C-alpha cells in the first residue's frame, strides 16, 4: 500500500506581537507556524487597517522573509489592527490572531548608571590629579540631564570643570564631568539626575581631594 502525503497551506503564524513603537512606526514580531503544510515557508504577508475602517490593506508588496517587520508612515494616536499570514508554495495560511496597537511613543522611566568603578560611592584623588565621572542615562522620552555640585546646579562648563553630554539615541545618552587638575575646593558630593514625565533617577559620588601635588626631585 502506498502512502501519499498531500501538501497544503501552512497554519497561521503564532505569538504575534509588537516589540517597539514610535509616533509613526511599529515593529512587529511573530513566530513561524507550527505546521508548514508539507512545503517550506517562503515568506509572510502583513496586513493592517485602522480601527474605523472595514478592510485590511497589505503592508509589504514583496513577501517578508524574516519574522519581523518595521511598519512606517502610521498616524499618531490612531488604533491599528495588524495580522500576519504565512505563505508556502501551495498558498496562504489563515491570518494570525489580530494585534491592536495605538501608535505612540513607548514610555520608559529614567535610569542612571555610573560608568566608573568606585568604592563606597567615593572618589579620592591627590590635589592636582584629574577627575572623571562618566554616566549613562536612559529613558523615553529621553530624560533631562542635570549635574549638581552639592546643592548647586552645574549650568555650564568652566575652565576648571568641563561637562559634556552626548545623545546616542532617542532613549540613551552619555554624560561626563571632567576636572583636569583637581583642587581642595573640588571636594564635594556630585549628583547626576535624569528626569522625564515618568519620574526621576539619580546617582551621587563623593569626591575627596587630599594633600598637595608635589614636584618630583630630579
Automatic annotation (TrEMBL):
Keywords annotated in UniProt: Immunoglobulin domain, Repeat
SMART domains for this protein: FN3
UniProt domain Fibronectin type-III: residue ranges: 9-106
Record-given protein name: Fibronectin type-III domain-containing protein
Coiled-coil segments on the chain, per record: none
Amino acid at each position: 500500500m502506498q502512502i501519499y502525503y498531500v501538501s497544503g497551506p501552512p497554519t497561521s503564524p503564532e505569538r504575534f506581537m509588537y516589540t517597539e513603537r514610535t509616533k509613526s512606526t511599529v515593529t512587529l514580531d511573530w513566530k513561524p507556524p507550527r505546521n508548514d503544510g508539507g512545503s517550506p515557508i517562503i515568506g509572510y504577508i502583513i496586513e493592517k487597517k485602522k480601527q474605523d475602517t472595514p478592510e485590511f490593506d497589505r503592508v509589504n508588496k514583496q513577501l517578508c522573509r524574516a519574522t519581523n517587520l518595521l511598519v512606517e508612515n502610521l498616524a499618531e494616536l490612531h488604533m491599528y489592527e495588524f495580522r500576519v499570514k504565512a505563505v508556502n508554495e501551495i498558498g496562504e495560511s489563515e491570518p494570525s490572531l489580530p494585534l491592536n496597537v495605538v501608535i505612540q511613543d513607548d514610555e520608559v522611566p529614567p535610569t542612571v548608571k555610573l560608568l566608573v568603578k568606585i568604592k563606597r560611592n567615593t572618589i579620592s584623588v591627590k590635589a592636582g590629579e584629574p577627575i572623571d565621572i562618566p554616566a549613562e542615562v536612559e529613558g523615553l522620552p529621553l530624560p533631562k540631564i542635570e549635574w549638581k555640585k552639592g546643592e548647586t546646579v552645574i549650568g555650564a562648563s568652566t575652565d576648571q570643570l568641563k561637562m559634556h553630554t552626548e545623545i546616542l539615541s532617542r532613549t540613551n545618552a552619555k554624560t561626563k564631568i571632567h576636572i583636569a587638575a583637581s583642587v581642595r575646593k573640588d571636594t564635594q558630593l556630585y549628583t547626576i539626575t535624569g528626569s522625564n514625565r515618568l519620574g526621576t533617577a539619580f546617582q551621587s559620588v563623593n569626591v575627596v581631594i587630599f594633600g598637595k601635588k608635589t614636584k618630583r626631585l630630579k
